[in-house]
Amino acid sequence: MTAKIKSVFICQNCGYQTPKWMGRCPDCGQWNCMVEELEENEKAVKRPFLKGRPKGINNISLVSEMRLKTGMDEFDRTLGGGVVPGSLILIGGDPGIGKSTLILQAAERLAQKGLVCLYISGEESPAQIKLRAERLNVNSENLYVITGTCIEALFEEVEPLKPDLMIIDSIQSVYTDSLNSAPGSVGQLRETSSRLMVFSKETGIPVFLIGHVTKEGAIAGPKVLEHLVDTVLYFEGERGHLFRVLRSVKNRYGSTNEIGIFEMKDSGLAEVGNPSRLFLEERPQDVSGSVVIPCIEGTRPLLLEIQALVGPSPLGMPRRTTLGVDHNRISLLVAVLGKKMGLELGDQDIFVNVAGGLKVDEPAADLGIISAMISSFLDRPVERHLVMFGEVGLAGEIRGVSQPEMRIREARKLGFSRCVLAKSNLEGSASIKGMTLDGVETIKELYDILF
Predict the structure, then answer these.
(1) 374-397: per-residue pLDDT in tens?
(2) CATH code for residues 70-273
(3) What does the pLDDT read at residue 356?
(4) SS3 per-residue string spanning the chain
(5) Which of the following CATH numbers is that of domain 277-450: 3.40.309.10, 3.40.50.620, 3.20.20.80, 3.30.230.10?
(6) Whole-model pTM?
(7) For 151-169, how does the pLDDT look when each residue is reduced to its tens digit (9 = 90+)?
(8) What pLDDT, in 10s, does the model give residues 266-312?
């Protein structure tokens, strides 16, 4: 008997299914996301994935799970120390940000060590990939390229090659013949990703998936795609800036707080070994509204410049524009300044920016943001060789943050001689030669020290 085929409408955002078209998905609330797909009632029997017999956790050997180091320290740090064999890694980012460039350079490093790497492209021809490889000086004999989109045909080509690493660019372009829906649909993404996951676990071959992102910045497709993989990396950066940030948002084999910083050049992506120095190279001297803060990204301290511009607004509703910091956090700090210090900024336009294009989301930046706003409002510059960090509460108190000594040592390394921090952090921090520490408990004390 032939299999019966029925039509079903599937939400491309969350995977919700309904027999009739609906303008709005009742599950996730998105509009115009229902796409008609054909579904077979009789599904093929799949062989379940099972690897070995049950073992005691103390009897499991980690010899075969040694990480593959690419030699790109920023890339390896974000992965938790290197590529784990048998892992499925998803890399997302805006179009043209450099995802394919990054993974091609990483594959070249591994291929130079004797590992066989296979680059599968569903969007570019071999000649186009060769053009990029020439620009990046990628010429290893162990790096193979193939173009195709049918996953069954790709597996047939992979089997005789037996690569040590596989790259899919992009996962939205790959499809399986077992489904009638178009490539990139929810069903195709779920099925092809599941097959690649089983393939990587059975063979021990790590697989990199490059994914498109939506206009909101999330990886296109249902959330099941991110739950299925072992590691999710986002490649971020502004097109007007040279710096790119590789950020881990999920990692089963390492920390999710690590970031890797790269600089885009004509010859590809170059690692940034000391990003703090680069971010502060063009800092203006003796200008109001400029403050340096030490923040922590994973295990790495970074010194960033917070810039604020506060001035009278010609509009009935003053503007609040932020780049790199949370917009709601700025509103909170403005309210604290008005209530606890009498600095009314309600009729002022406020612009806050993190120089270099990075994003800061930890509360330790509060002290720097509030100092930059006061400095710009009073038009009084903050001392050039001074850094500060601390969380500001609604009562105007300054709260301590984690790892104060690491922040202070990084500031001292770059030539700063004075640090303003929460008094609770001051009591637990060891004295550092050449660094003057000033502890504050309230924003009024901060105002008296700075201005």
Answers:
(1) 999 999 999 989 999 999 999 999
(2) 3.40.50.300
(3) 79
(4) CCCCEEEEEEECCCCCEECCCCCECCCCCCECCEEEEEEECCCCCCCCCCCCCCCCHHHCCCHHHCCECCCCHHHHHHHCCCECCCCEEEEEECCCCCHHHHHHHHHHHHHHCCCCEEEEECCCCHHHHHHHHHHHCCCCCCEEEEECCEHHHHHHHHHHHCCCEEEEECHHHCECCCCCCCCCCHHHHHHHHHHHHHHHHHHCCCEEEEECECCCCCECCCCHHHHHCCEEEEEECCCCCCEEEEEEEEECCCCCCCEEEEEEECCEEEECCCHHHHHHCCCCCCCCCEEEEEEEECCEEEEEEEEEEEEECCCCCCCEEEECCCHHHHHHHHHHHHHHCCCCCCCEEEEEEECCCCCCCCHHHHHHHHHHHHHHHHCCCCCCCEEEECEECCCCEEECCCCHHHHHHHHHHCCCCEEEEEHHHHHHCCCCCCCEEEEECEHHHHHHHHC
(5) 3.30.230.10
(6) 0.74
(7) 999 999 888 999 999 999 8
(8) 888 988 877 888 778 888 888 999 999 999 887 788 899 999 999 99
Which residue in this structure is represented by tokens 């990046």?
A: 136
